[in-house]
Amino acid sequence: MNKKWIKRATGLLLALVMVFTIMPLTVNAQAEKELIILHTNDVHGSAEADDKHIGYANYKNVIEDYKAKNDHVLVVDAGDASMGTTFASLTEGADVITVLNMLPLDAFTPGNHEFDYSQESAMKNYADSDFPWYASNVTYESTGELVFDAGEVLDIGGLMVGIFGLATPETKFKADPRNTEGLNFADTVAANVAIAEDEVERLKNDGAEIIVLLSHLGTDLESDVKATDIAAAVEGIDIIIDGHSHSPHSESGPSGHSFIASGADGLLNIGLATVSTSGKVTSNVITKAEAVEYGKDEQLDALIEGILEEQEEVLGIVIGKTALELDGARETNRTGETNLGNLITDAMLDASGADVVLTNGGGFRATIEAGEITVKDIFTVLPFGNAMTVIKVTGQDIIDALNHGTKAYPEPAGGFPHVSGMTYEIAVGYGSIPNMVTNVKIAGEPLVKTKEYTLASNDFMAVGGDDYTMFKGKEQTALYGLMADIVRDYIIELEKEAGEEGFTYEIEGRITIYETAFKDAPLGHWAHEYVETLYEEDIVKGYGTSGEFRPDNKVIRGHAAKMIAIAAGLDYDGLKADFSDVAEDYEMSPFIAALVEKGAVKGYDDDTYRPEENIKRSHLAKVVVKVFGLEMGEEDVELTDIADNSEKEYIEILASNGLVKGYGDTKEFRPDRTISRAELAKILALAMDLQAVPGT
Predict the structure, then answer these.
(1) Is 438 exposed, middle or buried (0-12, 13-18, 19+ CB in 10 A)?
(2) What is the DSSP string of 327-394?
(3) Do 318-513 and 32-309 have the same topology in CATH?
(4) Is the pLDDT of residue 65 over 80?
(5) For the chain, what is the mean pLDDT?
(6) Domain 32-309, what architecture?
(7) How would DSSP label each residue in 615-674?
(8) Mean pLDDT (whole number) for 302-313
(9) CB-neighbour burial class of residue 424 (10 A; exposed 0-12, middle 13-18, buried 19+)
(10) 647 and which of 358, 401, 568, 618 could share a cystine (Cβ 3.0–4.6 Å)?
(11) What is the domain partition of the chain in residue ranges?
(12) Domain 318-513 carries which CATH code?
């Protein structure tokens, strides 16, 4: 055989083997496709570009560039687009929809804030959208039919992408409950998992090569239904684009199931994810600095600017007239009650029907001068776009919140609590003793610590903002629209009843300062109650003009005589003590003489009384028992250090009547220790109580 022919045949055979070996790999490489997803969530009306926000005009150019350079680009938004700024709220989200229609957007899932204005507004915005709203878990209660769009397969440049949506069941209480009447949101993990599994199966049967869940569920641990719950339980979802939590993240799903990606709120960045038909998923973001390089779409930028100019006309609309200046000054609203704070909290109480309102003075940013009030004035006072929420709290939670909010007083603090439906007093602390509130009343009745109340606040504080941690994780019963809208509507109603000069709003005494007799024996001091009793009975007056009681000072025998004699109601007028060291004109002489007449003191063997000497606890016990005529009470006496003391009998009488106890956790009376002014105040106040009870 011709060797040359054999060589050629062998080469041809090897070539054929290589072709057939490589061919499947080449086919697979051609078949693999990659989907690019540009995604946003929780934009909250931030349409305009500024120092922080990318803005939609800039975003549109990013979209167009990606679509020009890639075959398979999907643009989605995971909800909460139509509330949060005046741009959004002045037209109840309509202007936001106009802007989104120009991006263009491929898919949207409604967030809870889409329902902030009314159900009618939400449905109108849905109808006016050129893009689908996917929410397979929202149905009409009456018919069971879907309110929004079921999942479907989209042809994205020849790549078949199945997409469906899930809305948060928290919409039922994180929007005004009236705005979702007649609508059912599947509210258990099991129900939402079943819906997701059905959608995945249907979309795959319809030819989907990649499946995307667009959800507004979030990943907050306190939520009953979370995106992570779906990722853990449902197979076949390649990626979940999520919103609601305001926490940018990307993570592979539990048990190897679907990937979860979420961008920053407010269009602070643009989410960028890729999903290949081979199952590979990546997640990243386009930062503002990177987005700026794409420039702005001139047409959309002009539209947004035009809307803002039109809104300036709306902001100039007069909604009412105030006869008095509404005080929004930083200093006053961060340290006490103001008429503006009262108006805002009353508006919240009226709109929510809650038991009480508590909101932070740091949220009030401007004064409204006497005269006409415009829409712009309201949004200038309340510029943060906070919504009103209602949560369930206990009376103790309210006390904790008030103590927290007033702890810096009299120094200004942004968290200072303005209230409606309740009143409270601030007891100013001293030294290491903090401020604390007292006399808290709700609807005129004393607060009950164990009772459950509904409390309306702003959505910032309701999740622990301004360090109001006692509110974090509390059950929400409702989430309303913007506080600015609520206040605007309230002022419109006030105007209907106002005269030509306008309505008046004044300080009412909702927040007052608790008047304590002595600044160094404030409400938080252990002897406060006893010191106050002695002050009210004109037994003590404090030191000079300092406003101090000096509770830790030791009591000298002369001062003790005065306090005891007055407390017991002894007659001391005209009396003079007969001791060699007590001068006739000594201020305490009459009181010492009264104790002698009562048989409570005798003085020392050297004919002295030693009025400037500190009195011991054991000696004080004897004097009090004799002056007040006390006898053994019913309480057990367990003091361990009085067995050999000469005044044991009197100490036991005090202890058996509850006038003294051991120090701290000990059972020691410490009879030879000199007594402090606070300790004496307690003994005298309790002795006076016993004296006032018939038969004692």
Answers:
(1) middle
(2) ---HHHHTTS--HHHHHHHHHHHHHH--SEEEEEGGG---PBPSEEEEHHHHHHHSTT-PEEEEEEEE
(3) no
(4) yes
(5) 91
(6) 4-Layer Sandwich (3.60)
(7) PBHHHHHHHHHHHHT----SS----SS-TT-TTHHHHHHHHHTTS---STTS----TTSB
(8) 93
(9) buried
(10) 618
(11) 1-31, 32-309, 318-513, 528-692
(12) 3.90.780.10
Minimum mean pLDDT among 197-211, 393-407, 531-545: which range? 531-545
In sequence order, the 6+-apart residues with CB closer than 8 A to the CB of 396 are: 449, 450
Which residue shows structure tokens 């943060």?
Answer: 384
In whole angstroms, how far apart are CA 522 and each of 70, 406, 413, 512, 664? 71, 15, 21, 15, 20
Question: What confidence tens digit (pLDDT) does each residue in 463-513 have?
Answer: 888 889 999 999 999 989 889 999 999 999 999 999 899 999 999 999 999
Q: 336-373, pLDDT tens digit by residue?
A: 999 999 999 999 999 999 999 999 999 998 999 999 99
Is the per-residue pLDDT at 10 higher than 70?
no
CA-based end-to-end distance of the chain: 138
Could you give the CA distance from residue 466 to residue 503 in angstroms, rounded to a whole number? Answer: 32
> Structure pTM?
0.63
Reading the block at residue 223, the tokens are 């939520």
Predicted pLDDT of residue 692:
58
Burial class for 187, CB neighbours closer than 10 Å (0-12, 13-18, 19+): middle
- How far from the centroid of its chain's Cα atoms is residue 617's Cα? 49
Query: What percentage of the chain exceeds 70 in pLDDT?
Result: 94
Cα distance between residue 65 and residue 61, in whole Å: 6
Size of the chain in residues: 696
Closest CA to 98 of 130, 55, 58, 63: 130
One-letter amino acid for residue 114 of the chain: E
Q: What is the pLDDT of residue 662?
A: 87
Whole-angstrom Cα distance, residue 673 to residue 654?
Answer: 16
Q: What is the pLDDT of residues 554-604, one digit of tens each?
A: 999 999 999 999 999 999 999 999 999 999 899 999 999 999 999 999 999
Show the tokens assigned to 77.
């938004």
Q: What is the pLDDT of residue 251?
A: 67
Return the closest-CA partner of residue 660 out of 501, 527, 505, 475. Answer: 527
Residue type, 624: V
pLDDT of residue 341: 98
The pLDDT value recorded for residue 252 is 61
What is the C-alpha to C-alpha distance for residues 248 and 246, in angstroms, rounded to an integer? Answer: 6
How far apart CA 79 and CA 168 sit, in angstroms, is 10
Q: Which of 365, 349, 386 is nearest to 461 (CA)?
A: 386
Alpha helical stretches, state H, 32-93: 56-69, 86-89
Which amino acid is it at 237?
Answer: I
Question: What gap in Å lies between CA 454 and CA 536, rounded to an integer?
Answer: 38
Helices (H), 237-283: none
Contacts of 181 (CB under 8 A, 6+ apart): 119
Q: What is the pLDDT of residue 499?
A: 87
According to DSSP H, which parts of 382-482 are helical?
395-405
Answer left, alpha or beta for residue 157, where phi above 0 means left and psi between -120 and 50 means alpha.
left
CA proximity to 86, closest of 361, 304, 321, 389: 304
